[in-house]
Amino acid sequence: MYEEKNIENLWSKEYQAKGVPSSFKETPSSNLVDFLRLFSKEKLSDSKALDIGCGKGRHSFYLAEKGYLVTGIDIVATNIDEINNAALNSALPIKAYKRDLSENWHLENEKFDIAIDCFCFKHLISIESRENYLNELNRYLKPKAYYLLTLSDIDDAYYKQFPVRKEEELQVILDPVNNIESILYAKEQILNFFSKYFDLIDHKLNHAFSEMHGKTFLRSTHKFVMQHKIG
User: Is the dihedral of CA 72, 202, 154, 31 positive or negative?
Assistant: First the structure.
């Protein structure tokens, strides 16, 4: 089970409290907008996109509006119900499923042209859950598929104010407001972890002010664009 605690309950409470950006933002991330520019001249008909940790679906709907057939996965059942109901009402090609990312993703035999993960992977704490994530990502992506990953840097101003514990030499932070853990990553740690199945296409370290739990902090976050090596 995902990190051996009731993470679904913690995230359900977070989405109600609207403390972190993924809980309250409705417009797509600028990182996703930039990512899709890579494919602006390519045919999108029948291209499949996987939205990992889709939340309430702001990125899933943006992808669908851009022409993708979208599959979203998230741990929170109420998020999944909201997405599927809204997709039905809007007639957009989105299917959302409740999934525990530390277990088999159960996406049948689907293969995706692109996958996005905006601040989800960083919440997988144990090495077992992270390795499962990597193996499932490899299993469901087409050869040469593109993958967008965004997450917090080790110098992120919000998380730096809290105590650190070590997990396999990584920095784990507990957000005391919502009791949800995160791993803070340096660039090379991500590259080393994903190098078995992915090549780096682009990396950017972003610095921007952002609201966390009602206060503004200078955030430090990574944007990775990677390409799948293996089918």
Answer: negative
**Single-letter residue type at 47:** S
For 201, phi then psi, to 5°, come to -100, -40
Q: What is the largest CA-CA distance in the chain?
A: 48
Q: Whole-angstrom Cα distance, residue 211 to residue 140?
A: 34
* Residue-by-residue pLDDT tens, the chain, 231 positions: 344 458 999 999 999 999 999 899 999 999 999 999 988 767 667 899 999 999 999 999 999 999 999 999 999 999 999 999 999 999 999 999 999 999 999 998 899 999 999 999 999 999 999 999 999 999 999 999 999 999 999 999 999 999 999 988 899 999 999 999 999 999 999 999 999 999 999 999 999 999 999 999 999 999 999 999 975
**Closest by alpha carbon to 23, among 99, 120, 105, 102?**
120
Sign of CA dihedral 205, 24, 119, 115: negative
The CA angle 210-212-215, to the nearest 5 degrees, is 85
C-alpha of 36 from chain center = 15
CA distance 200 to 180: 29
Q: Are 208 and 152 in contact (CB under 8 A)?
A: no
Q: Please tell me the distance from the alpha carbon of residue 206 to that of residue 220, in angstroms, as a whole number.
A: 6
Tokens of 130: 């992270």
CA 58 from centroid of its chain's CA atoms: 12
Beta carbons within 10 angstroms of residue 183's beta carbon: 21
Euclidean distance between CA atoms 190 and 213, whole angstroms: 27
